Amino acid sequence: MAVEREPRTWGYGRASSKKQEASPETQKSMIKDYARFQQLPGDVTVFLDPATSGKIPWEDRPAGSQMFKHLRPGDHVVIAKLDRAFRRLSDCVLILERFEKMKIKVHIVNLMGGAIDLSSPMGKFMIHILAAFAELERAFISERTKDGLSARKKKNVQYCHFPGYGFRWEKRRVDGKTARVKVRDEEERNVMRSIVGWRKQDNPLSWLEIEAHLKDLRLINKEGRLWTEQRIRRACKAELKLQLEEGRANQ
To answer: Disulfide-capable partner of 157 in 17, 152, 164, 172 (CB 3.0 to 4.6 Å)?
Structure first.
């Protein structure tokens, strides 16, 4: 049962990475400055979820769940930015309905501040519209990111950490700029061809035997690690695919 007490003020911030402009510490400062300016009750306590995906519902995040446990009727919740709390419009609607029932006042700093009246039709309409636009903006950003990665992939410019078995990233000049470009890794391809050969010979070696053999030869992969059974299986599959593609290209 909730313990009755004087209303308090709680702040919440989240960042998906430490490199974001709106870092958790920046959001914390925004929240505290806002609470002080608005003279909100009590000393504001800020809960921060650094490097946390927005796909996780607000109340299921580590810091978010702790904040929800402290909430009582009449409290104030201050959010630096709407998208720091909500990922989807549906999440926003459910949480705000819960806050309305608990008579919790919500403040969003980057929306000119001021508590949003969740009990009024206009207040509900405004927050739903804002959440919908925030969700649409994220969709556009995701689409642009995918298009950018696709364009880099077509140019063979680095688009991910792992270039694939039989390839490596190498610095080259592309469009007048230095970039890491995908090139063939003949040293790794030789190991991959050997793995396929050992599997196809009259007395094929097992995966564990190949792993032990590569270890005896002191062969390491491009990441500087020993070849494991799992990597050997993947490399074998990748080599068979590359051989098939090369065979089609030569036809």
So the answer is: 152
Q: Which amino acid, one-letter code, is at 224?
A: G
| Tokens 């995906």 belong to residue | 53
- Evaluate whether 106 touches 115 at the Cβ level (below 8 Å): yes
Fill in the DSSP letter of residue 186.
Answer: H
Per-residue tokens: 40: 């909100």
Task: Report the topology of domain 9-147.
Answer: Rossmann fold (3.40.50)
Helix axes 207-216, 186-200, angle to 10 degrees: 140
Please choose, from the candidates 66, 106, 76, the residue with its C-alpha nearest in 3D space to the C-alpha of residue 8.
76
| pTM, full prediction | 0.53
Non-local (6+) Cβ contacts of 152 within 8 A are 158, 159
pLDDT digits (tens, 9 = 90+) for 213-230: 999 998 888 888 899 999
Helices marked H in the chain: 24-38, 62-70, 82-85, 89-101, 121-154, 186-200, 207-216, 229-249
Domain segments of the chain as ranges: 9-147, 168-249
